[in-house]
Write a structure and sequence with these properties.
A two-stranded antiparallel sheet has the order 1-2. The mean pLDDT is 83. The chain has 73 residues and is mostly helical. The chain contains five helices and two strands.
């Protein structure tokens, strides 16, 4: 995943190369404050907990929705 974001292929991520939650937390992930996220820093970064369905999506609800007949019948 890091290699896909590393557009200039220098082995580290500049803030201009990232987006979403990684960009929002860039300064927290860049633990040595050098302006780049290294592979080690990237691997140590907190991972999404799986509660959401991805960027901009609400958490998944595994409850079965009622059928039309059940809802209106």
């Amino acid at each position: 995943m890091m290699a896909e974001m590393d557009t200039n292929k220098d082995g580290k991520l500049a803030e201009s190369e990232v987006k979403g939650p990684l960009k929002n937390d860039f300064s927290k992930i860049d633990t040595n404050a050098d302006g780049f996220i290294t592979e080690a820093e990237f691997n140590e970064a907190p991972k999404p907990n799986g509660e959401g369905g991805g960027e901009g999506r609400p958490p998944r609800n595994d409850k079965q929705l009622p059928t039309v007949a059940e809802a209106f019948g």
